[in-house]
């Protein structure tokens, strides 16, 4: 596989929309899900002096994009809930 093919493996990079969407992210590893919303619609976080001018998720994260702020925050809150955390425990690998 050449570097350009690897960079867009399974079209996971080119299928992302860098601006105009709410990005729901969570890691692909770890004991507990840690989910967040990255806002590229309003391009800033109200409580911080931080702005986004575009965003791409990397290889170790799962990504869902939506134009609806309420959907993004609802999904993020649900994924961060204790209900989901307990429901996935049976399917997670256990260490030695």
Strand content: 15-25%
What proportion of the residues is helical, as a percent range? 10-25%
Give me the count of strands.
3
Major sheet summary line: 3 strands, antiparallel
Tell me the structural class: alpha+beta
Feature tags:
96 residues, three-stranded antiparallel β-sheet, alpha+beta, 18% strand
Plain-language structure description:
The protein has helices at residues 3-7, 69-79, 82-88; strands spanning 22-27, 35-39, 61-66. Strands 2-1-3 form a 3-stranded antiparallel β-sheet, covered by helices on one side. The mean pLDDT is 78. The longest helix has 11 residues, at 69-79. The protein is flat. It has one domain. The protein is an alpha+beta fold and 96 residues long.
Quick structural summary:
The protein is α+β, with helices and mostly antiparallel strands and 96 residues long. 24% of the residues lie in helices and 18% in strands.
């Amino acid at each position: 596989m050449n570097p350009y093919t690897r960079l867009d493996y399974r079209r996971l990079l080119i299928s992302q929309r860098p601006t105009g969407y709410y990005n729901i992210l969570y890691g692909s590893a770890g004991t507990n899900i840690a989910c967040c919303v990255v806002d590229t619609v309003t391009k800033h976080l109200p409580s911080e002096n931080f702005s986004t001018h575009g965003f791409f998720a990397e290889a170790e994260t799962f990504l869902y994009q939506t134009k609806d702020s309420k959907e993004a925050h609802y999904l993020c809150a649900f994924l961060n809930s204790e209900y989901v955390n307990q429901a996935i425990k049976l399917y997670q690998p256990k260490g030695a």
